[in-house]
Structures are given as C-alpha cells and as structure tokens.
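Appendix C. Worked example: Succinylglutamate desuccinylase
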Amino acid sequence: MQDLLQQTLSGNPPTITSGTLPNLHWRWLDEGILELTPLVQAQQAVVISAGIHGNETAPVEILNAIVTRLLQGELPLTVRLLVLLGNPPALRAGERYLRCDLNRLFGGRWQQFENCPEAQRALCLEQALETFWQAGAHQETRWHLDLHTAIRDSYHTRFGVLPFSTQPWPEAFLHWLAAAGMEALVFHRAPGGTFSHYSSEHFQAASCTLELGKALPFGHNDLAQFQAAQQALTSLIAGVPLPEATVTPRRYRVTQQITRNSEHFQLHMNPQTLNFTAFPQGTLLAEDGKTRYFVQQAQEYVLFPNPNVAAGLRAGLMLVEDNAHNAALSGDAAAHR
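Step 2, the predicted output written as structure tokens:
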C-alpha cells in the first residue's frame, strides 16, 4: 500500500492488506485503520488519530505524510503504532460529519444512535483501540494523540484539550505537547464522549485532543504552519530527540459547560467570537428557556462556542486560568527579559 489517505478515500481496501519491510510489519485492519509494528521490542504504544471530523484535513495530510515515510523506509519505527483516519465518509464529503458528531459518541454513547453511520464507526474505533492496547506488554507506555483543527480562529492558535483524569499527567507527555507547539492546555474536570477521553478512561492512556489551527479543505492547508507538531510526531515515532519547545503552554481548566437542550437555545456571543475570548463576571452567556448561563468567576474564557449543535450537545465551554501555573510562567518570562 503506497498511500493511506488515497486508499481510504477510494472506499476500497488495498489489494495487499499486510506486509513486512526491513524495520516494521504493517496491517490494514479496516477502512482507514493501519497498524504498524517495529520488528524490535517496543516500550511504548502510540495511537494517532485524525479526521474524526471530516472537514479537518490538515492533520490528516500531516499523518498521511508520516505514514508514507514509514512505508517507504525513510523513517525508523520505534513504537507500536496505530493510525486511524476517523470518519472516512465525512472526509470524502468534506463535511464535519454526516449524521452525528463522531467525537461525542465514544464510551458507549454510540448506542443511543445505532442507525447512524458515525455510531457504527465509533464502535469500530473503540474495538480497534481495545485490540491494539491489549496486544501490548503490561508495562507498555500508552499515548493517544487525537489531531484536530478548530472551526473558528483562536487567541491561542494551537492548543491541547486533556480529558478528565484522576491520575497526574506524565511529565514526558506534557513536555511533548509543549514541543509540539501547544500554546495552551485545557484540562477537563468531568467525563465526556470524546475519543481522547475514551482512551484515558478505559485504557489509562495519556491522551489529548490537539487543536492545530483552522479547519480548511484538502489542498488549502499551509502545512508549514504545522511544522512543530509534525516534527514532534516524527520524533515520537522514530525515537529521536524532540525539537526545542519555543513556548511553555498556559494552562486553563473547564469551569462550566454550556449545553443546548432545545430549539429555544440562544448563545449571546458574536458569531466571530474567538476561542479564549475573556468575559467578566456576571455576563449572560446563553439561555435556553428558563435556563441561563452566566460567567461565575471573576473572568472566564470561552472555548468552542457553537449554537448550531444538536440538542443535548455542548454549545461551548467556559474556562478559568490556572493562576498559580500561569503566574510562574510570567515570572520566568520576566526573569529572562
């Protein structure tokens, strides 16, 4: 198989579904699902997914370029690697999704929409992860990087969203996110239906949803803007030193979720509102019938505002800064000026 993306977009499986190269074995497991195993013992298992939303194409192109280098023998493989192109029908259509938002269906939530193509795909991806993780050694380090681009512009162009976890985040993982160019890290405080949360909750993987820039169609991405993330992914896969982190990410935590529950929902924000826009305490953010959402803290920042989601889904997150961490960052910056 020469090109994972083109093979997936064709809608057909490759003629040859597995093979062995000088330093790896590869297997096409299902549509857009490729497993690559080094021929030497690996200490780490990595899942990299992209295209969970079909209109977020730059991460798919980045991931496909890395897979091509692996299959052509240009890049060594030092980890067990599972590559997932999340929603092939939506990728072919150039749409975020066809029927349901795939990234709200994990952890068994797909069972509420069993006749939806995305629900069937969520089950397929869950099974692929379970099989992959269980095939490894017990002491193997597990990472899952779910690559996205955002619908709207942002004050932090590249940022990571980390799922709720009861365990401390590994320093090596946080260091990798900084090297990948993340300007901010957002920490969830409640479970959710995202792919990264599924990996964390069910398989204790260090996982993150990486927002790498603005969503654009295939062929319209300036991949030079994604260079830090591409270099960090290459370093992780090939076992070579990480690029130097140019910034230390600012940290935020989710303080409340805005949910659209009916057709009466109104989001009181300009359609052009950027991610991480700040609102002062007392601001009316949204209302849905008798339910009203206000800024509760002295200052909160909005993330992913979207009034057009289906009923029952998230229409935005409100964040507060990790003041202790960010104050330390500011102090370090001042000390080096």
